[in-house]
């Protein structure tokens, strides 16, 4: 069956119908009912062919494209900071095209046009995502998987279309290797509890680079306390890269798991994950990759990376909060036990015997974040409208422009200078604490983040407890970088204490 035109349900009788949706954009068939599995055994992951094509969110929802947001003054894109050349958009991509789709970028803050440079914390949402979530709640809201009525089937098809879209985004071999979670943090905790508790014991080691986010440190510490395993930090080089010689020396027969971010949220470092995974696999260790900061900035192929587990959060990918995904290889899935019990993750329940659903449903207890999956599907569809390589090239050029521009501000020091990095610029400013810097910038409508960024060991590597951070995305421009630099120059001229919050 195909999903009906839900947009027709939302339109008034006077509105003309949209153009018909091509048949090839229909959602893939819903997976067959799960097979019965005894509690004492973990099912093998059924082999399901990878989706050849994934339906676009507007087609799935039947919502016609709406006119672009009202015209607003464009953010200047001509570099003027110290006479620097502008970051030039790559062929096949324009940041202005992306900006037109994101309503919040057209608001003002404290009387100034918003300059959103806090993308490392969360990205802003295009109208296509907002409309998809609204259309779902307006015309297709239902629980999934178990209902026999029309709307239950529609919601289920949307949910599973989202799973197929995530599999395609990550280069996964099958939608059945994708589990929905609240975000990266829950995904990592899921692996710790469902795989780690079963496989780690006294003396086993988990290698964790110093640059990791707290969500990729604390769950392993908790697990190590419980299993008497050891968390082994992997040091950094002075430029903020993972020390690869130290990493190779730390690997041993005791290593059961290596965890690593594909991109650091505080230093921007992009480690050589593929090489690190290949080396870990020589010791039969599993590799978990935190992709929270990577998926919005670079093409991802989990099979090429050699990831046994890969986690990301939707809200850092222009999708709603509270939704994310975890990829696991079929081999890793077969070695996992249920983490949470309840509805949806079972096949049958009695007081004598309970049997579980196959993966990935066995890891999705209770009602999932259905509207979040719809929004994630719409976000992935939106991103597919841009050339991935062109976006990555543009962001690299913008980062280079921003690095050069910030270097012209007296007292500003950017930390981390690894050769491979994403557009995350964490910095300090002499005479001003990071919170004061962020407060000053906010008065000019510029949003940056200040604090420890949930990466205290990485900051401690530089002798810091906190710093300010400007993190860029595909809709940012060199003109916005110029505004950041101009505001910081005014702060430097105003002197120490100028940015302190009042009251």
In CATH, the homologous superfamily of the largest domain goes by the name: Type I PLP-dependent aspartate aminotransferase-like (Major domain)
- CATH topology description of the largest domain: Aspartate Aminotransferase, domain 2
Gross morphology is globular
First-residue to last-residue Cα separation: 61 Å
Rounded radius of gyration (Å): 24 Å
CATH architecture of the largest domain: 3-Layer(aba) Sandwich
Strand content: 5-15%
What is the helix tally? 16
Number of domains: 2
Helix-strand category: alpha/beta
User: What's the rounded overall pLDDT mean?
Assistant: 85
Q: Count the strands? A: 17
| Helix proportion | 25-40%
Keywords: Pyridoxal phosphate, Transferase
EC number: 2.8.1.7
Domain Aminotransferase class V: 115-484
Protein name: cysteine desulfurase
What does this structure look like?
Belongs to the class-V pyridoxal-phosphate-dependent aminotransferase family. Csd subfamily. InterPro entries: Aminotrans_V_dom, Cys_dSase_SufS, PyrdxlP-dep_Trfase, PyrdxlP-dep_Trfase_major, PyrdxlP-dep_Trfase_small. GO terms for molecular function: cysteine desulfurase activity; pyridoxal phosphate binding. The structure is a single chain. This protein is of the alpha/beta class. The chain folds into two domains: 152 residues, Aspartate Aminotransferase, domain 1 (Alpha-Beta Complex); 250 residues, Type I PLP-dependent aspartate aminotransferase-like (Major domain) (Aspartate Aminotransferase, domain 2, 3-Layer(aba) Sandwich), CATH 3.40.640.10. It contains 16 helices and 17 strands. The strands form five sheets. The protein has a seven-stranded mixed β-sheet, with helices on both faces. A four-stranded antiparallel β-sheet has the order 13-14-17-16, covered by helices on one side. Helix 6 packs parallel to helix 7. The N terminus is likely disordered.
